[in-house]
Design goal:
Layout lengths: L6 H5 L4 H34 L5 E5 L6 H17 L3 E5 L6 H8 L7 E6 H9 L11 E10 L1 E6 L7 H10 L5 E4 L5 H13 L4 E4 L3 H10 L4 E5 H9 L3 E6 L26 E8 L4 H15 L2 H9 L3 E2 L4 H22 L5
Parallel strand pairs: 1-2, 1-3, 6-7, 6-8
Antiparallel strand pairs: 3-10, 4-10, 4-11, 5-8, 5-9
Helix pairs in contact: 3-10, 5-12
Length: 346
């Protein structure tokens, strides 16, 4: 007796293609999960080993200025805490923006950091064609310190007060000059605000850093300068510079004999400098958290606070979230100030 072949025997098991499809889909799903798990574990593994090679701190100003001094102080403590060399590298120019652009383009691996300050909050609105966005291409790691600025002239100058400067500038429009450590820096904007508030014609002379600017003010080549109190005070004490006024609303405890611009008749004039650390966008959170923790711990050390006092600065430690909120507030403040001054710089 012949048995008729069934449809399944003639054409194969109709469920086999479906089974094969399910098997293939399951394999692909497992492979995708494995790849995703591996990719998520890589930064965590790297973060746990971090750092395993030297870290570079990039700064945009010349050796000897406040940014350089703070960076080298910080580098020493980071090196000891992290167990890896931390090297400071000066990339001078464009008000710190050469350094900022360099770090913004660096890999987000935690091995390239930027130390700067108020200039990056100002630069976002001051420059029309800035090659990086401090909020998008960089991420703030921690705040470091803050300090007052001071208006100074040569000790040989006949200008001894704000009234003297205003009187001389109005009598001789365009004759007076003021130096800064770079275009778009906080001390540059302090000078521009000073000019605007008093309706004065004073020419800005930008330098690549505070040190060369101070030399020309001391020699009388430039009339005056808004400078960091930290770098100006030694020259004030040895008689090479004369302090006219500090830029905070109240007198500084580091120079109590120097009046504030508020006292000198410029109500509400308050321009203080602050410093912070940034990393390129994309650095894993675990690395950022570790860096913030190490920096914050360093700022609480008695020897660091004592060293900051010698720089006429005070520790200004914030967590990452607090630092970001502060940065956004500063950017908003300086955007309003820059817009009030008129056309922006290129």
């Amino acid at each position: 007796m012949k048995v008729k072949p069934s449809m399944n025997n003639m054409f194969g098991d109709k469920n086999r293609p479906t089974r094969r499809l399910k098997v293939n889909l399951n394999k692909r799903l497992l492979l995708a999960i494995a790849v995703l798990t591996w990719s998520m574990s890589v930064p965590i593994a790297h973060a746990s080993d971090y750092p395993d090679r030297p870290i570079k701190i990039i700064i945009g100003f010349s050796p000897g200025g406040p940014t350089d001094i703070l960076s080298r102080l910080l580098a020493d403590k980071l090196s000891k805490s992290l167990g890896a060399p931390v090297i400071v590298e000066n990339k001078v120019g464009a008000g710190g923006n050469i350094a900022g652009a360099f770090v913004a383009k660096a890999p987000g691996d935690g091995y390239t950091l930027l130390v700067g300050g108020t200039n990056y909050a100002i630069g976002r609105s001051w420059y029309k064609n800035l090659p990086f966005d401090v909020l998008k291409d960089l991420q703030i790691v921690a705040t470091i310190s803050k300090n007052a600025n001071v208006l100074v002239v040569s000790s040989a100058s006949n200008l001894k007060s704000v009234k003297d400067i205003v009187r001389e500038a109005k009598a001789n429009p365009g004759k007076l000059t003021f130096a800064s450590s770079g275009a778009g820096t906080v001390v540059h904007l302090a000078g521009e605000i000073f000019k605007s508030r008093q309706t004065l014609d004073i020419t800005h002379v930008p330098y690549n850093g505070a040190a060369p600017a101070e030399i020309d003010v001391m020699s009388g080549r430039v009339t005056m300068m808004f400078d960091s109190l930290a770098t100006a005070l030694p020259f004030i004490k040895d008689g090479r510079l004369r302090a006219i006024a500090v830029t905070s609303r109240e007198r500084s405890g580091y120079a109590p004999a120097v009046p504030s611009l508020e006292e000198e008749g410029m109500a509400g004039f308050d321009v203080t400098s602050w410093y912070a650390v940034w990393a390129p966008a994309g650095v894993p959170k675990a690395m950022l958290d570790r860096l913030n923790r190490v920096i914050t711990d360093a700022l609480s050390l008695p020897d660091i606070r004592q060293r900051l006092e010698t720089l006429q600065a005070e520790a200004f430690a914030k967590g990452i979230a607090g630092a970001l909120d502060f940065e956004r507030e500063e950017i908003s403040k300086w955007t309003s100030a820059v817009e009030a001054l008129g056309p922006r710089s290129e």
